[in-house]
Design a protein that fits this description.
- The chain is mostly helical.
- The chain has a single domain (9-87), classed as Arc Repressor Mutant, subunit A.
- Helices cover 55% and strands 9% of the residues.
- The protein contains 5 helices and 2 strands.
- Helix 1 (9-20) crosses helix 2 and helix 2 (28-35) packs across helix 3.
- The protein is globular.
């Protein structure tokens, strides 16, 4: 999954859930619950955010853990800006 112009409300809610978790590591399923998206969708968003440089990943058993990277804005400033703008548009 690459970068595209549009972001969905589900993606924005997932991003906000990750931001609200601050520096805490969370599974995709935990973020799914907090963002009210399907677990499968959350796993896809988590992998996308890792590829885009927004998430750090800890490959641990039984489930990988993710957190919003402190370098997200440097690694992919345009996508972070797009997500932040969508937060305001969707009122999330």
């Amino acid at each position: 999954m690459g970068e595209r112009n549009e972001v969905s409300v589900q993606e924005v809610r997932f991003y906000v859930a990750a931001k609200n978790a601050a520096d805490r590591w969370a599974t995709a399923n935990e973020l799914a619950d907090k963002s009210k998206v399907a677990q499968r969708t959350a796993r896809a968003f988590a992998l996308k955010f890792v590829k885009l440089g927004l998430f750090d990943i800890a490959e641990v058993f039984p489930a990988h853990r993710y957190r919003l990277s402190s370098l997200a804005a440097k690694r992919n400033a345009s996508y972070v800006r797009r997500l932040d703008e969508a937060v305001a548009v969707f009122g999330v």
